Structure prediction request, 67 residues.
Amino acid sequence: MRKIIVWSRNNKINFNEYKSKVMIISRWKRKENKEINIYLNNKPLQQVTKMKYLGIVIEKNSNSANT
Prediction:
């Protein structure tokens, strides 16, 4: 995360911590729900299992993305 923050400052880009979210994506199927703590501008980001990006819905437990 630090590299992203340094890169964004160097390129004069600000990320909104209220609109940013975290999702774990992995090849391995895990039965337990893993919680991670990621902070942006000293604020914790919400961890989600599903998000929409440019009209595409990405789900943690799915093999394919839905439109």
